[in-house]
Structure formats: C-alpha cells, structure tokens
C-alpha cells in the first residue's frame, strides 16, 4: 500500500471504506508485531514505520471526511428548514384561497354570425354571467374586495357581513351590469318586448353625468339577480363606497351606482 491513501475521501467517498482501510492497516501492524516478537531486524522496523505513517495519513483523511460530512449535515438541516417554511407557506395559501379572485377582463370580439337571436334576447342571470362584451367596447366590472380592504372597513360598517358575503354582492352587481349592457348592445329588432322595454328604461336613466360610465340602479339588481334590495344591501353599498368601488349619481328620482 503506497502513500496514495491521502485521496481516500475523494476516490472512495465513503467513511465506511476508509474505516475498513484503517482496520486493515491496524491488522497488518499487529501481524508484523506478532511475527517479530523475538527477532525484529532493521528492515522490519523500517517497514513498520512506513505502515504507521500510512496509518497516520489515513487518520488525517478520515478526520477531513468527518468534517466534510458535518458541513453537509448542517447544510441539509438548513435546507430542510427552508423547505419546511415553504411547505407551511403553501399550505397557508391553500387553506386561505379566497372564493373570489380579482381578474382582468380583456376585450373580445362580438359574435356577429347572426345566430339564434331569440336566445340572445331572453337575458337570464345564468346567461348574463358569460357576457363580457358589447358593441361599444368591453364591459367594465367591479373588482373583488381583497382581504386587506375588507379588514380596513370599520367594524360598525361591516356588522355581521363576512368577506365572502361582500364579494357575493360584488358578483351580483357584475351580473346585473353584464346583463344590462348586453341588452343595450342589441339592435331593437333583435329584442323581445320585455327586453325592448328594459333597453328604453336604461337609455332614459342615462344623463350627461353618466356618459362613458357603467352603472346600475336598484331595479337592475332586482331584474337580473336573486339579491334583495333591503337595508342590509344598502349597508353593503356603504362598504363598497368605503372601498372606492362605486359612487352614486342622483337625478330625476333615480340613484345610479356607478363603478369607480
């Protein structure tokens, strides 16, 4: 065995193998001592010295490998802690995903294939949920309330209205907006009698102050959603005004709720 044992940690990469080499060296030295108990010539002493030197080199390499393993173990512990923190963060996000996530609406082209106009004229809430576009441009919708915004609302104003209930009203208002502006985008001849009357009412409620604005009135909420327009609803409107989601435009005995 030569002095190349210094490379054990790099070539073997295993403490058990180094340990085995160490045991072999000890056994070799012990055997030499046993055989030379009575006669120990100079050449034997020289050989014994070489074996002891190699044994020392193996021990030094063993120490280096142990130190290296300690560093790796510490790094693995730190990595485990980081992974655990990430897992806890992901689990927290998974457990707290809001029912309503704000999203951007992008313009899409109006369907002009002249299909079944009767289905387009009978505007129902379920159909209105999919309407995103009118001939005059995309329909603006109210952004959902974030959890931070909800927490900023004074308690006296929130009352018992939960975060989910507040955003459910936001969705109902958006449903009414989509349905209203879908009807406004249709030519008169494509509408049934009820939709024509609604379209005329929508136009009568517009004014110079609402030009370029998207708004609904209480009658629109009742027409296109199942939501009740009561004292609780008025309280929720106050919360939406606090979060700067809408404002009121009054005139002609009509209160218009305009999106900010």
How would you characterize this protein structure?
This protein is mainly alpha-helical and 260 residues long. The protein folds into two domains: 3-95; 117-259, Ska1 microtubule binding domain-like (Arc Repressor Mutant, subunit A, Orthogonal Bundle), CATH 1.10.10. Helices cover 58% and strands 7% of the residues. It contains eleven helices and five strands. It has helices at residues 8-11, 15-35, 42-95, 117-121, 125-128, 147-152, 155-158, 163-185, 193-204, 218-224, 231-242, and strands spanning 133-134, 137-138, 215-216, 246-251, 254-259. It has a three-stranded antiparallel sheet. The protein has a two-stranded antiparallel ribbon with strand order 1-2. α2 packs antiparallel against α3 and α8 crosses α10. It starts with 7 loop residues before the first helix and ends with a strand.
Please specify the SSE layout and strand pairing.
Blueprint: H1 8-11, H2 15-35, H3 42-95, H4 117-121, H5 125-128, E1 133-134, E2 137-138, H6 147-152, H7 155-158, H8 163-185, H9 193-204, E3 215-216, H10 218-224, H11 231-242, E4 246-251, E5 254-259
Helix pairs in contact: 2-3, 8-10
């Amino acid at each position: 065995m030569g002095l190349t044992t210094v490379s054990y940690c790099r070539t073997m990469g295993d403490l058990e193998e180094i340990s085995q080499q160490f045991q072999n060296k000890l056994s070799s030295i012990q055997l030499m001592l046993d055989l030379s108990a009575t006669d120990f010539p100079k050449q034997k002493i020289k050989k014994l010295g070489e074996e002891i030197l190699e044994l020392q080199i193996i021990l030094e390499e063993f120490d280096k490998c142990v130190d290296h393993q300690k560093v790796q173990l510490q790094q693995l512990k730190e990595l485990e802690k980081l992974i655990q923190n990430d897992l806890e963060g992901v689990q927290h996000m998974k457990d707290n995903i809001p029912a309503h996530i704000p999203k951007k609406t992008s313009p899409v082209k109006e369907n002009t294939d002249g299909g079944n106009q009767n289905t387009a004229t009978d505007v129902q809430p379920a159909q209105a949920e999919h309407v995103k576009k009118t001939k005059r441009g995309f329909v603006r919708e109210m952004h959902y309330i974030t959890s931070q915004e909800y927490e900023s609302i004074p308690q006296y104003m929130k009352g018992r209205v939960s975060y989910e209930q507040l955003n459910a009203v936001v969705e109902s208002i958006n449903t009414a907006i989509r349905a209203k502006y879908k009807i406004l985008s249709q030519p008169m001849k494509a509408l049934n009698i009820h939709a024509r009357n609604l379209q005329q009412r929508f136009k009568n409620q517009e004014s110079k102050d609402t030009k370029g604005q998207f708004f609904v009135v209480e009658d629109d909420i009742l027409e296109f959603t199942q939501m009740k327009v009561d004292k609780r609803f008025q309280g929720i409107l106050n919360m939406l005004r606090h979060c700067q989601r809408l404002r009121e435009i009054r005139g002609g005995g009509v209160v218009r709720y305009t999106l900010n």
